[in-house]
Amino acid sequence: MAISTVMKKLLMATAGGVFIALGVTAKAEAFALNGQSLDLPESREANISLARFAATPESELLTIAQTPGMQSNIAFGGPWYEFSFGQVGEDARGCNPADPNGPVCTPSSAGNSVFAGASPWEFEVGAAGAILKVTDAFSRGDAFSIFNFNTLIGATSTPSRGGYCGDNPDICFADPLVSKGAFNLAAGQYSLRIVPTNSPFKAGAAYFRLDEVEVKQVPEPVSVLGLLAFGAMGVANRLKRKPQRHQ
């Protein structure tokens, strides 16, 4: 089976990405190319092999290789991200100058926020999952729906009309009269969109943040059994030392 120069270059430069994109991962195969061994990951599809890769048109391979991956523009466990919004149903935007097309926003006086860039806000969640927090701020009354691409993640709570929680997202998130929500995110790639469902002032600003889920260490079964065995030995020793009654 002859392999053209284009295909060789693609294999050398972007083997992992191309294989994953095409699903060319039948079992754990190895393909020798210019003296280098390329190990392919295992696949759920048992009947896919390198033949499928070889049969793919070079133009399609070039398109896949040149397609940029998702670039994260949101950090985990960092500050709150301040975003802007307008009328009901319109996608929220960032704040100028992080988002050149967004309005000028008032930052948190507590110094615990940064301006969000242009939406959608992209990031990848690891296997442990993450928590997304969204809160209205400043004047109460706004509420939001949160989407990953076009899939609804959830909606913030029903707001109270009137009043002011200030510009500090921590204080606003703790205010029971403010619309907010905390959403568990499963592992995967996200393209976050926030859409106002209530916007009585036709414009405003709010906040969101991402936090990774803390994974607690669980004792290994062997360790637990060892502790139980040690405890049993201690009880046995105590019984041996128990004085015997004489008849």
Summary tags:
13 strands; four-stranded antiparallel sheet; five-stranded mixed sheet; 2 domains; alpha+beta; Jelly Rolls; 247 residues
Could you write a compact summary of the structure shown?
This protein is an alpha+beta fold.
Please, could you describe this protein's structure?
Mean pLDDT is 74; it is low at 5-50 and 60-71. By secondary structure, the protein is an alpha+beta fold. The chain folds into 2 domains: 5-66, no CATH class; 80-212, Jelly Rolls (Sandwich). Strand 1 and strand 2 form a beta hairpin. Strands 4-3-13-6-11 form a 5-stranded mixed sheet. A 4-stranded antiparallel sheet has the order 5-12-8-9, with no helix packed on it. It has a two-stranded antiparallel sheet with strand order 1-2. Helix 1 (5-22) packs across helix 3 (58-66). Helices cover 24% and strands 29% of the residues.
| SSE class | alpha+beta
**Mind telling me the C-alpha Rg?**
28 Å
Strand order of the largest sheet: 4-3-13-6-11
Enter the CATH topology name of the largest domain.
Jelly Rolls
How much of the sequence is in beta strands? 25-35%
Shape: globular
Compressed to H and E, one letter per element, the order equals HEEHHEEEEEEEEHEEEH
Architecture per CATH nomenclature, i.e. the level-2 architecture of the largest domain? Sandwich
Please, what is the average pLDDT?
74
Largest β-sheet summary: 5 strands, mixed
- N-C termini distance: 94 Å
* Share in helix: 10-25%
Query: How many H/I helical runs?
Result: 5
The overall strand count is 13
Unreliable runs: 5-50, 60-71
The total number of structural domains is 2
